[in-house]
């Protein structure tokens, strides 16, 4: 599930960036009782810490440092594609050598506040507490408008914002990007037959599978009543297809019971790996992914489709080549009986031809047996 940045149940986490060991030690001693303090010796080290740790809530930074100074760190934070990082409170620690022009430059680059050396514990704690509290409130408000309350994943608005960032990064760095759009098969029928509680359980189970499979850099969201979307930065169509097939299989294998019987749960998935072009937007990419998903739904559902064709496999079987026309892989009589027992008559109906061929020798024997 998508988790809000932070350290639930623990101390708020702060980052102190200063090339002076004395200042780092003093800040740690003054703040360590109420905060989880992380330190960095220069701006580059501080930037790496910010990128790697979403739980950092406030940054204190010196201005004059080797590798990357405080101005450079400020600029990286404020221009970051990740809105959570771009909005971090940054408190600039100034000394006697920093004149008014230096403070004005830091303000132009987005400094949130200033504290002057030598600082005392009262001032430092007051600044840290005020900005950490503000950051917690901001993240809580963001969660209220960007998280789907049923599944804990992002909602459609959240996904569009993240996809826009992913597209910009992919175009700028010439990295591949893939988008999945998926839908729970026959959701309306299942809702009518089993009720809202069972339908909600199905959506939550799909969300659990998605959350378990995605990486830290991926984004997943519920974008419709029974539709989800996943953005996979740096994944080409082959990698995304492998991911999609794993997701498809694990949803199929999920145990979901209703009134003592297993509910059939399958998804159709459309995989798209867009090539960057000037007119491309998050909305157009999601619409293109919807067209690929529609192909899967029109072919009967319960499959993974790419623009090049169908890529689908039953549990334990390899993917079919994308260039081959769609034909449901055969199932055994035992699989068919199990599917019927779980109420999946429509799925079995799609395999009647192959099942008839498998049963033909037995039927002939029964017909030829003397009465």
Automatic annotation (TrEMBL):
Residues 13-132 form the Response regulatory domain. Pfam families: GGDEF (PF00990), Response_reg (PF00072). Residues 175-309 form the GGDEF domain. GO terms for molecular function: diguanylate cyclase activity. Keywords: Nucleotidyltransferase, Phosphoprotein, Transferase. Its EC number is 2.7.7.65. The keyword ATP-binding does not apply. This is diguanylate cyclase. The lineage of its organism: Bacteria, Pseudomonadati, Pseudomonadota, Gammaproteobacteria, Oceanospirillales.
């Amino acid at each position: 599930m998508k988790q809000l940045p932070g350290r639930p149940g623990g101390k708020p986490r702060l980052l102190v960036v200063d090339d002076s060991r004395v200042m780092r030690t003093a800040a740690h001693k003054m703040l360590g009782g109420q905060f989880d303090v992380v330190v960095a010796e220069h701006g580059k080290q501080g930037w790496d810490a910010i990128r790697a740790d979403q739980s950092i809530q406030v940054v204190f930074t010196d201005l004059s440092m080797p590798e990357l100074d405080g101005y450079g760190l400020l600029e990286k934070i404020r221009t970051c594609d990740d809105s959570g990082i771009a909005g971090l409170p940054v408190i600039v620690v100034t000394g006697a050598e920093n004149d008014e022009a230096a403070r004005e430059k830091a303000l132009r680059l987005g400094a949130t506040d200033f504290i002057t050396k030598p600082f005392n514990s009262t001032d430092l704690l007051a600044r840290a507490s005020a900005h950490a509290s503000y950051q917690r409130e901001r993240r809580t408000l963001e969660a209220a408008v960007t998280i789907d309350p049923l599944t804990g994943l992002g909602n459609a608005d959240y996904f569009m914002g993240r996809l826009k960032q992913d597209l910009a990064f992919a175009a700028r760095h010439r990295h591949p990007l893939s988008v999945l759009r998926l839908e729970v098969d026959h959701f309306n029928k299942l809702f009518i037959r089993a009720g809202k509680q069972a339908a909600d359980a199905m959506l939550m189970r799909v969300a659990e599978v998605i959350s378990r499979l995605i990486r830290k850099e991926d984004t997943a969201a519920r974008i419709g009543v029974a539709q989800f979307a996943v953005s996979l930065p740096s994944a080409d169509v082959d990698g995304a297809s492998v991911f999609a097939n794993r997701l498809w299989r694990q949803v199929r294998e999920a145990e979901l019971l209703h009134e003592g019987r297993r509910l059939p749960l399958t998804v159709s998935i459309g995989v798209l790996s867009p090539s960057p072009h000037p007119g491309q937007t998050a909305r157009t990419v999601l619409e293109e992914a919807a067209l690929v998903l529609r192909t899967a739904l029109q072919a009967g559902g319960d499959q993974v489709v790419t623009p090049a064709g169908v890529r689908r496999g039953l549990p334990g079987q390899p993917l079919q080549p994308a260039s081959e026309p769609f034909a449901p892989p055969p199932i055994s009589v035992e699989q068919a009986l199990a599917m019927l027992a779980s109420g999946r008559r429509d799925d079995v109906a799609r395999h009647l031809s192959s099942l008839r061929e498998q049963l033909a020798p037995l039927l002939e024997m029964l017909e030829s047996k003397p009465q």
